[in-house]
Write a structure and sequence with these properties.
Elements lengths: L7 E5 L2 E10 L2 E15 L6 E6 L7 H18 L2
Antiparallel strand pairs: 1-2, 2-3, 3-4
């Protein structure tokens, strides 16, 4: 079975957002996921890897608001 993919994605600095479209009996419904990307360094090996979290620092909140606004604009354009 093919995994569902977002219909729209965006990135604002370290904040990413995705818009998902779901077919229902009542028509299309949209949902949004927003996360923050950061680089983690392993203390033992020193290797680095990207991680995603759904918690935000105070300084992230303006970008979270902008990401939500961009996602809503995309959804509004789809539902006109």
């Amino acid at each position: 079975m093919e995994k569902n993919k977002p219909v729209h994605k965006g990135k604002l600095g370290r904040i990413r957002f995705s818009v998902w479209e779901n077919e229902t009996r009542n028509g299309k419904l949209y949902s949004v996921s927003i996360d923050r990307v950061y680089m983690r360094t392993d203390d033992v090996t020193g290797t680095q890897e990207f991680r995603n979290v759904s918690t935000f620092n105070r300084d992230d909140l303006e970008l979270v608001k902008l990401a939500a606004d961009k996602a809503q604009t995309f959804i509004d354009q789809q539902t006109r």
